[in-house]
From TrEMBL:
Presence of keyword Transmembrane: no
Protein name in UniProt: NACHT domain-containing protein
Molecular function (Gene Ontology), one example: ATP binding
Pfam families: HEPN_DZIP3, LRR_6, NACHT
Source organism phylogeny: Eukaryota, Metazoa, Cnidaria, Anthozoa, Hexacorallia
Signal peptide span: none
Length: 1233
C-alpha cells in the first residue's frame, strides 16, 4: 500500500471513530479502558496486519499477473483444498469465474497467510511457522510468523477481552516493529496515531469478533499445513534426485534450411496466380490494434510487425497472440513478413521473445497433428527418421525459444480443432510462443485462452497510398491519377482499407487505364472481366466483346458450382477430378486458380485452390445468383437450409445479392423483401439482428452505382421494417443507410446507438431523419470527433420540427459547452421533450449554466442527466439551484461524477429543505465531498417530503455517515429508493440499517452493493426486514457475506412476505449458503427475482436450488451465471423445470457446463411451457459434443418447435463468445417448422 493510500485509509478509520464517539454501546457490553486496549490490539492485528500482509503478498505477486501465478500453483492449492485447508469460499476468491478479476483485496488474513507460506517461495524459518523466532532474526518470513504469534498472544486475553496498560504497551511495540519491517516506515507514524485514537464501543465489539474469526479459521488449518509442507519437501527431494535429461542438441543445419525455405517461398506475394511481387518491394504495414478482451474495444495500436508480444494490463508476458481480421486484410501477408524477417535476421521489437526457431504452418494444409504438420510443411522430403525425431526433441526441450505461426485458423479442417485447442489451452507445447490468425467467426472457441487479442484493420489511408505508390513506382503518373480519383470518391476511400482490394484496384487500374468501381461486387466483376481479357490476349483469341463474362458464362458457372460445393464442405482445395472431361489446362477457369503449392509434401495428386478465399466466395455468389434467376434455387430456402452456417456464408450471400443488383433490379428487391421478412421475426429483440445488418449491407453493395435502385431498396426496408426498439452496439453498423430508411419507417420508437460515430456527416444524417420521422420517441447516441456549430444548429432545427421525440441522450466528446448553448436554444422552445441526457459530453460550467437558464422557462422537461461531466462545478450547480426554486416541472436530476463539492451539495440541500422543489429523484454519486455533505444529505432525508429516490454511491459514507443516514430513515416517510453502494459501509452498519427498517414504513428498495458488510453485517441487517412491511428490493451484492451471511438472509426471506427482489451476487456463497437459501425458497411466497451470480455454487448447491424450484410458485427470474454448477447441476435444474410453472428467465452462463448439461436443456424444450429464456453463454470448457462446446450457430434449431433457439443473436454475438443455448418463446421467436 502506498503512503498516500495508507493515510487515506487511516484518516477514514480515525474519522469514523470520531463520528461514532457518541454512539450508544450495545446493551450486552460495557466499555472500559482495558477493554478498549484489547480492541485496539485486535484492530491493529486485523486491519493493519492484513493490510501489511496483503502488501507483502502483492510485492511477490504483482496484481496484474496474479491470475497467472495462481494458475501456476493451482495443483498445490488444489491439494490444500482437498485437505480442507482452503474452504469453498476461499477457493472461489482464488479462482473466480472471470480469472483476470481475481484480486488480493478479496483475500482475508487467514487466506493471505496460507498463500504466503505455500506459494510465494518463502523459506520456512528455522523455528518453524508457529514458534516465535529469535529477536535477532528479522527476515520477512520471521515477521510473518510474528504477526500470527502476537495474534495468538493477544487472543489469550479473549475471555475477559481486556488488557492492562503495561501489557498493552509491550504488545503494541512488538507488533508495530514487525509490521513496520514488513510494510515500510510509512506505517510507523500512522500506527502511533491509531494507538491514541478513541475507541468506540461499537468498534470494540466489531474488532473482537474479527480477531476471534481469524483465530478460529487458522486453528482449522494449523496441523494440516505442517503435513502438506512435509509432503511437498519429500516430493521436492524425490524430484531433485531424479536424473535430468540432457538438452537436445541444436539442429543448426536444419534450422538454416527452414530459413532458406522462408526466404524462397515467403519472399513472394502472389495476389493473383499470374502476378508475382517481391515481398519487401510491395509490403506495407497494416494497422494492427490490440483489443480489450472483455469489451472488444480498441485499447492501443501495435507500432511494429514484431510488437505483438508487448505487455499490457491484461497480461504482463503474453505467450499466445490471436490476430483476427476480415478477408483480405493482410493476415497471411503479415505471417509471411514475420517469418521472412526472421529468416533474414532482421531486428525485432524489444518486447519480442528471444526466438531460435520460427515454424510457419498453414492451417488449411494440415491433415494430422501438429508434429505431422511440421514434418509435412517444413522439413525436407529426404529427412532421416532419427534427424526428424531429434528435431522434435529439440522443439520440446526449447519451447520458450520456439515461435509457432498458425495462419488461417478459420480455414482449418473442422476435425482438427482439438489440435488448436490443446495448443492454446497449454496442453501441448505449453511454453512455446504462438501467433494465430483467423477471421473472427473462426476463432470463437479459442479466443478466451489467448493472452493478447489483436485486430488487423487493413491499411490506414497513408499506408494504402504508400502501397499504391510502391505498385506504380515505374508508372508514377498513373499511380498519382489513381490517388486523385480515390480522394474524390468517398466509397472508394473506404474500400481501399482492405489490402487485397487495394491490390486488385491497382491491377484493374493498370490494365484498363482508369475507370473505378464503387463497390466490392463491382470490383470483383471488373477483375473477372480483366482476367478473361488477359486470357484471350494470351491465347490469341478475340477480345473485342465488352462482356467476356457472358462469352465464358458456362465456364464461370462451372467454377462457381465447384466453389459453392467446396464452401459447403468447408474446404478450399479443389481436386482435379471435379472438372469435366472437356476441361483442359487452356480453359479460362485456371486463370482464377493456382496449382496447390508444395508446402505439403504428403499430397502427391494434383489439386487447385483459389488465390484467396474471397475469390471462392465471389464465384459461389455468381453461381447462386444465376441459379436464383433461373428459378433453380430458392433464396428463402437457402437462408433456412444454411442458417446454421449463416455467418460464415455471409460473404457468399452478399456477393449473390450484389451481383443480382447488377443483373436484375427486381431480383435484388425480391431478395431484400425476404431478408426484411427474416428481420421482422425478431421485432421484439432489442439488439440489432443479423438479418437487419445483412439487409443494409446488401443495399450498400448492390446499389452503390445505381441511385434509383438505392432509393427503392431504402424505401422498401424503411416501409416494411417492423422493429419497435433497436440497440446498435457494433461500430461497423451501416448507420447512414439505416437512418435514411428510418425517414419512411412507422414502427420504431426507441433507437439506442451505443457506439461512437464521428463528425458532421453522422449528425446531418441524424438530423435529416428526425426532421421527417413521426414515430421515434427516444433516441440515444454517442458522437466523437468534431461537430461544427452549423451541424449542431442543423440538429437543433430538426428537433424543433420533430413532434414525437420525448427522450434524448447525447454523449461523446463531440459536444462541449458551445454545442450545449445551441441546443439550449431548442430546449427553451421545446414543448415535447421530457428527458434530456448529456452523459459524458465534455461540458463544463458554461454549458450547465445555459441549461439552468432553460429550466427557468421550460415547463415540459422532467428529467435532466448531466453525469460524468467533471467540468461541471459549484458555480453552475448554484445556477441550477436558483432555477429549481422557480421550476415546477423537473423531477429527476443526475449530477453524479461531476466536479461539484461541498458548496454545490449544500446549495442543493437548501433547495430540498424548502419542500417546494418538484425534484423526486436525485443522483449524487462519486463526487468530491466531505463528511459535511454527508451530514447535510442525512438532514435532508429527515425533513424533505418530496424526494422519492436518492442515489448516493461511491462517496465514502462509512460507518459514521451510515449512522446519520440510518437515523434519518427512521423519520423519513417519502423515500422509496436508497442506493449507497461502494461507500465503505462495514459490519456494524448492518445493525444501524436494521433498526431503521424496523421503524421506516415507506422504503421499497435498499441497495448496499459493493460494501464491506461481511457475514456479521448481513446477520445484523437481516433482522430489520423481518418486521418491515414496505421493502421489496434488497441488493447486498459484493459484500463478502459468505455462507454464514447467506444463512441469515435466507432466514429472513423464509418468514418475510414482502421482498420480491434479492441480489446476492459476488458474495463468495458456496453450496452450504445456496442450500440455506433454497430451503427458504420452499416457504417463501413473495420472491420473484433472485440473483446468485458470481459466487462459488457447485453441483450440490444447484441441486438444492432445483429442489426448491419444484415447490416454489413465485420465482420468475433466477441468475446463477459465473458459478461452477457443471453438468450435474444443469441436469438437476432441468429435472426441476419439467414441473416448475413460474420461472421465465434462467441464466447459467459461465458454469463449466459441457455436452451433458446442454443436452439436458435441449431435452427440456417440449416439457416446459413457461420458461422463455435460458442463457448459457461461454460454457465451452470441456470435450466437444453434439450439444456442448459449440458456437451458438451450431445448435440445431429446426427440430425445436416449442421455443426455438435464436440463431439471430448468435450471429451478432459470436465476437463475444459462444452461445450454447439461448431460448426464448416471446422475444426470440423463429418460425415454426
Amino acid at each position: 500500500m502506498s503512503h498516500n493510500l495508507f493515510n487515506i485509509w487511516l484518516y477514514s478509520i480515525a474519522y469514523f471513530r470520531k463520528t461514532m464517539a457518541t454512539a450508544a454501546p450495545p446493551v450486552s457490553f460495557s466499555s472500559t479502558k482495558e477493554t478498549a486496549n484489547y480492541a485496539r490490539l485486535c484492530h491493529l492485528l486485523v486491519e493493519v496486519g492484513s493490510c501489511v500482509l496483503r502488501n507483502t503478498f502483492d510485492k511477490i505477486n504483482p496484481p496484474s499477473d496474479l491470475h497467472k501465478h495462481l494458475k501456476t500453483h493451482r495443483a498445490t492449492l488444489q491439494q490444500l483444498r482437498m485437505k480442507k485447508i482452503l474452504n469453498p469460499t476461499q477457493w472461489g476468491k482464488l479462482y473466480p469465474a472471470i480469472r483476470t478479476s481475481v484480486s488480493s483485496k478479496n483475500f482475508d488474513i487467514t487466506l493471505l497467510t496460507v498463500l504466503l507460506r505455500n506459494i510465494c517461495s518463502l523459506s520456512r524459518p528455522a523455528t518453524g511457522w508457529n514458534a516465535l523466532p529469535p529477536a535477532a532474526v528479522t527476515s520477512t518470513e520471521a515477521d510473518i510468523v510474528r504477526v500470527k504469534y502476537f495474534r495468538n498472544t493477544v487472543y489469550g486475553h479473549a475471555e475477559n477481552a481486556s488488557v492492562d496498560d503495561a501489557t498493552f504497551n509491550v504488545y503494541w511495540q512488538d507488533i508495530k516493529d514487525a509490521l513496520v519491517r514488513l510494510g515500510g516506515t510509512a506505517y510507523g507514524v500512522a500506527i502511533d496515531d491509531l494507538k491514541n485514537e478513541c475507541m468506540d464501543p461499537l468498534f470494540e465489539e466489531h474488532y473482537r469478533e474479527l480477531l476471534k474469526e481469524w483465530k478460529r479459521d487458522d486453528d482449522n488449518t494449523k496441523d494440516k499445513l505442517n503435513e502438506i509442507h512435509w509432503m511437498l519437501e519429500e516430493l521436492m527431494k524425490a524430484s531433485a534426485s531424479k536424473t535430468q535429461p540432457k538438452d537436445a542438441e541444436e539442429p543448426a543445419e536444419l534450422i538454416q534450411r527452414i530459413r532458406q525455405l522462408y526466404l524462397t517461398r515467403e519472399g513472394q506475394l502472389s495476389p493473383f496466380p499470374w502476378c508475382d511481387l517481391e515481398l519487401n518491394d510491395i509490403f506495407t504495414r497494416p494497422t494492427i490494434v490490440r483489443q480489450d478482451k472483455t469489451r472488444r474495444t480498441a485499447a492501443e495500436q501495435v507500432t511494429s510487425i514484431t510488437g505483438v508480444f508487448k505487455p499490457h494490463n491484461g497480461c504482463s508476458k503474453p505467450r499466445i497472440v490471436l490476430i483476427e481480421g476480415e478477408p483480405g486484410m493482410g493476415k497471411t501477408t503479415y505471417c509471411q513478413k514475420v517469418v521472412y524477417d526472421w529468416a533474414n535476421g532482421q531486428e525485432t521489437d524489444a518486447s519480442f521473445p528471444k526466438i531460435k526457431l520460427v515454424l510457419l504452418l498453414k492451417c488449411l494444409d494440415m491433415s494430422g497433428n501438429i508434429w505431422e504438420a511440421i514434418d509435412d510443411q517444413l522439413l525436407p522430403k529426404d529427412i532421416e527418421k532419427e534427424e526428424r525425431e531429434n528435431f522434435f526433441k529439440y522443439i520440446r526441450a526449447n519451447q520458450s525459444q520456439v515461435l509457432l505461426v498458425l495462419d488461417g485458423l478459420d480455414e482449418a479442417p473442422s476435425n482438427l480443432m482439438k489440435i488448436f485447442s490443446d495448443l492454446v489451452e497449454s496442453r501441448e507445447l505449453s511454453k512455446s510462443h504462438i501467433i494465430l490468425t483467423s477471421r473472427q467467426e473462426g476463432s470463437v472457441k479459442i479466443r478466451k485462452y489467448c493472452d493478447t487479442l489483436l485486430q488487423i484493420q487493413g491499411f490506414a489511408p497513408e499506408n494504402s497510398h504508400n502501397y499504391i505508390k510502391h505498385y506504380f513506382k515505374d508508372l508514377e503518373a498513373q499511380g498519382q491519377n489513381l490517388l486523385k480519383d480515390i480522394e474524390q470518391n468517398i466509397e472508394l476511400g473506404e474500400l481501399i482499407v482492405n489490402p487485397l482490394f487495394t491490390a486488385m484496384l491497382c491491377l484493374f487500374y493498370e490494365y484498363l487505364e482508369g475507370g473505378l468501381p464503387l463497390s466490392k461486387t463491382q470490383l470483383y466483376l471488373e477483375i473477372t472481366e480483366c482476367i478473361l481479357k488477359r486470357f484471350c490476349q494470351k491465347q490469341g483469341l478475340s477480345h473485342d466483346n465488352d462482356n467476356q463474362s457472358e462469352v465464358y458464362k458456362e465456364e464461370l458457372e462451372q467454377l462457381g458450382r465447384i466453389a459453392w460445393e467446396a464452401l459447403k464442405r468447408d474446404i478450399m482445395h479443389i481436386d482435379k477430378g471435379v472438372f469435366t472431361a472437356t476441361t483442359t489446362r487452356k480453359s479460362p477457369l485456371f486463370e482464377f486458380l493456382s496449382v496447390q503449392s508444395n508446402s505439403s509434401k504428403r499430397r502427391s495428386h494434383t489439386c487447385y485452390r483459389f488465390s484467396h478465399k474471397s475469390f471462392q466466395e465471389f464465384f459461389a455468389g455468381l453461381y447462386l445468383s444465376d441459379q436464383i434467376l433461373k428459378g433453380e434455387t430458392d433464396f428463402e430456402g437457402l437462408l433456412a437450409n444454411e442458417r446454421q452456417n449463416l455467418k460464415s456464408l455471409e460473404p457468399v450471400l452478399l456477393f449473390t445479392v450484389g451481383i443480382l443488383g447488377h443483373k436484375s433490379e427486381d431480383g435484388a428487391l425480391s431478395l431484400l423483401k425476404i431478408i426484411i421478412m427474416k428481420t421482422n421475426l425478431f421485432k421484439n429483440v432489442v439488439l440489432s439482428n443479423f438479418y437487419l445488418y445483412f439487409a443494409l449491407k446488401c443495399i450498400g453493395e448492390c446499389s452503390m452505382e445505381n441511385s434509383g435502385l438505392r432509393s427503392q431498396m431504402i424505401n422498401l426496408l424503411g416501409t416494411n421494417l417492423e422493429l419497435q426498439c433497436l440497440m446498435i452496439s457494433d461500430d461497423s453498423f451501416p448507420i447512414k443507410l439505416f437512418l435514411e430508411a428510418l425517414q419512411v419507417n412507422s414502427t420504431l420508437t426507441l433507437l439506442h446507438i451505443l457506439v461512437p460515430f464521428f463528425g458532421d456527416q453522422f449528425i446531418v444524417s441524424l438530423a435529416n431523419m428526425l426532421r421527417v420521422n413521426k414515430t421515434l420517441t427516444a433516441v440515444v447516441f454517442i458522437t466523437n470527433g468534431f461537430v461544427s456549430a452549423p451541424g449542431v444548429q442543423n440538429l437543433a432545427d430538426s428537433l424543433m420540427v420533430n413532434k414525437t421525440l420525448c427522450d434524448l441522450l447525447f454523449s461523446g466528446n463531440a459536444w462541449g459547452d458551445n454545442a450545449v448553448r445551441i441546443l439550449a436554444g431548442y430546449l427553451k422552445r421545446s414543448v415535447n421533450l421530457s428527458s434530456f441526457d448529456l452523459t459524458a459530453s465534455d461540458i463544463g460550467d458554461p454549458g450547465a449554466t445555459a441549461l439552468a437558464e432553460v429550466l427557468r422557462t421550460n415547463t415540459t422537461l422532467n428529467g435532466m442527466h448531466l453525469q460524468r461531466n467533471p467540468g461541471i462545478g459549484n458555480p453552475s450547480v448554484m445556477s441550477l439551484c436558483e432555477a429549481l426554486r422557480v421550476n415546477t416541472a423537473l423531477s429527476s436530476l443526475n449530477l453524479s461524477e461531476t466536479g461539484i463539492s461541498d458548496a454545490g451539495v449544500l446549495s442543493l440541500v437548501e433547495v430540498l429543505k424548502t419542500n417546494t422543489s418538484s425534484l423526486t429523484s436525485l443522483s449524487l454519486s462519486d463526487i468530491k465531498i466531505s463528511h459535511r455533505s454527508v451530514k447535510s444529505i442525512a438532514e435532508v432525508l429527515r425533513v424533505n417530503c418530496t424526494l422519492k429516490e436518492l442515489t448516493f454511491e461511491g462517496n465514502k459514507v462509512g460507518v459514521g455517515g451510515a449512522k446519520l443516514i440510518a437515523e434519518s430513515l427512521k423519520a423519513n416517510t417519502t423515500l422509496k429508493l436508497l442506493s449507497l453502494s461502494r461507500n465503505n459501509i462495514k459490519a456494524p452498519c448492518g445493525r444501524l440499517f436494521s433498526d431503521a427498517l424496523k421503524v421506516n414504513g415507506t422504503l421499497e428498495s435498499l441497495i448496499l452493493a459493493e460494501n464491506a458488510l461481511g457475514a456479521r453485517g448481513a446477520q445484523l441487517l437481516s433482522e430489520g426486514p423481518r418486521v418491515n412491511t414496505s421493502l421489496t428490493h434488497l441488493d447486498l451484492s459484493g459484500n463478502s457475506i459468505g455462507d454464514d451471511g447467506a444463512k441469515s438472509i435466507a432466514e429472513t426471506i423464509r418468514i418475510y412476505a414482502s421482498l420480491t427482489s434479492l441480489k446476492l451476487s459476488q458474495n463468495s456463497i458456496g453450496d452450504p449458503g445456496a442450500n440455506k437459501v433454497s430451503e427458504a425458497l420452499k416457504d417463501n411466497v413473495s420472491l420473484e427475482d433472485l440473483d446468485l451470480s458470481f459466487n462459488a455454487i457447485g453441483a450440490a448447491g444447484a441441486e438444492s436450488i432445483a429442489e426448491a424450484l419444484k415447490s416454489n410458485a413465485t420465482l420468475t427470474y433466477l441468475k446463477l451465471d459465473y458459478n461452477v454448477i457443471g453438468d450435474n447441476g444443469a441436469q438437476s435444474l432441468c429435472e426441476a423445470l419439467k414441473t416448475n410453472a413460474t420461472l421465465t428467465d434462467l441464466n447459467v452462463s459461465y458454469n463449466n457446463i459441457h455436452s451433458a448439461g446442454a443436452q439436458a436443456f435441449d431435452e427440456l424444450q417440449g416439457l416446459n411451457n413457461t420458461l422463455k429464456k435460458v442463457a448459457m453463454i461461454m460454457n465451452n470448457n470441456g470435450d466437444f459434443g453434439d450439444h456442448g462446446d459449440q458456437e451458438f450457430s451450431e445448435v440445431p434449431m429446426i427440430s425445436l418447435p416449442s421455443f426455438p433457439i435464436s440463431h439471430d443473436l448468435s450471429l451478432r454475438f459470436t465476437e463475444q463468445g459462444s452461445f450454447d443455448v439461448l431460448v426464448s418463446r416471446e422475444t426470440l421467436m423463429l418460425p415454426q417448422q
